[in-house]
Amino acid sequence: MKRIALLKTLTVILFVICIVTMFFTVPFILVLAVMPGQIPFKINGHAADTLGIETILCMLAAVVGFAFFIYALHLFKKTLELFEKKKMFHADVVKYLDQTGKAILIGYTITAATTFIYNTLVENNLELNVALGFDSSFFIVGLGLFFLVLSDVFLMAKNIKDENDLTL
To answer: Which pTM value belongs to this model?
Structure first.
C-alpha cells in the first residue's frame, strides 16, 4: 500500500502542476487574442502581434486536449483513492479506468490532429513525427489503450468476485 500512496502523491503533485499551468495558459491565450501588442516576448520565434487567428485557434485546441489529460489525471487520482480504501473491485474503479483511457485517447487525438492540421495548412510542412520515448504517439495511445484493457480486466475480476460471493 506504500506504493499506492506514493503513486497517489505523485499524481496529486502532477495534477496541481497541470492545473496551475492551465490557470496561466488560458488567460495568456485570451490576452494574445485580444491584445497581442501587450505581450513583450516572442512565441516560437514570432512576435505576438504577427500571429494569426489560426495560431490562436491551434493554441486553444491544444488547451482543450491538455484539459482531457488533466481530467484523466483526476480520474486516475480517484481510482487510487479507491485502491487506498481497498475497494479494488468496486464498480467505480472500472468506470474510472475506462474513462481515464478514453480521456487520454481523446486528448491525444485533439492535440495530434490540431498539430498536424496546423503544420500542414499554416506552416506548409507535411511531416509525420515518429518518435520513441514518453512523448511519442505510440506511448500515449498505448497508455490510453492500457487503461481501457485494465478496465475490462477489473470488470471481469469484479464479475468473478460477485459470482463467488453469491455462491458462499
So the answer is: 0.86
